[in-house]
Amino acid sequence: MYHHRVRYALLALSLLCWPGVADAQRTPPPLSEMAKEPFKVFDNLYFLGTGEVASYVISTSDGLILLDTLYGGPYTGYLIENMRKMGLDIADVKYVLIMQGHWDHYGGARELQDQHTKALFGAAEEDWKMIEADLGNQAPRRDFVIEEGDSLTLGDTTINFEITPGHTPGTTSMRFAVFDNGTRHEAYFHGGAAVRSRDAGVIRTFIADLERIGMIPDIEVQITNHFDTAATGAPDLFGRAERLARRKPGEPHPWVAPDDFHAWIDETVANTRELLADAQ
Ligand SMILES: [Zn+2]
User: Fold this and answer.
1) Distance 260 CA to ligand 1 centre (A)
2) Full-prediction pTM beyond 0.85?
3) How far does the centroid of ligand 1 lie from the alpha carbon of residue 270, in Å?
4) How far is residue 204 CA from its own chain's centroid?
């Protein structure tokens, strides 16, 4: 019943995330239409993104970790200003993690490196290759490569990485802890939750990864980097933000929703399986 909606959503996501467009043809969506107020999602997690693509900061006892960099250009100043609004300083960023090799996620990386931060930049090997093929000598400097099973510790915070290809060849996902007024919850952030390949092997790998992710014990929180389509599982991200802002003491945190997380896994697996019928 919802298949048409999901197919449309996959198409919409593919247009958002279409790689390989020459630089000169790249115009990000107007900032005036996409700008959103940043907000604190958890004690240690901040949303800094736009109406169509996320960037987050994880705060630790020893500095900040920035997840994705938006498009660059006017969005770089926007990102830095959103950090400032949250009381965060770009100078405190120690690591920048690029979770997928599509422009809306890495576009600001080079400018941040050149002008704003001494942080170390990491992505998966296959997506570094994508970015470098895309940008040539304008590509951001690669400081480190994220591999399957790697972890990154900064101060009191450890991130565990998984490489979950399908959206891009090196889509990077992560597990980490978030804290709601001091109460710990386990979060999963899938770096590219819609498959972008017609290769049956790639699609099967994407599905197998999702099924495995669904078996990880204790995941209660889903973090997403797109949220304007049903396929991302969080069409109501900004609605959640409003509920969070209105939350009264003792009420549950809108992001702590393990049933929603597992429903999203099941729905995404089911709909991705349908793509196998058209796969090569
Ligand atoms: Zn993408």
Assistant:
1) 22
2) yes
3) 20
4) 22
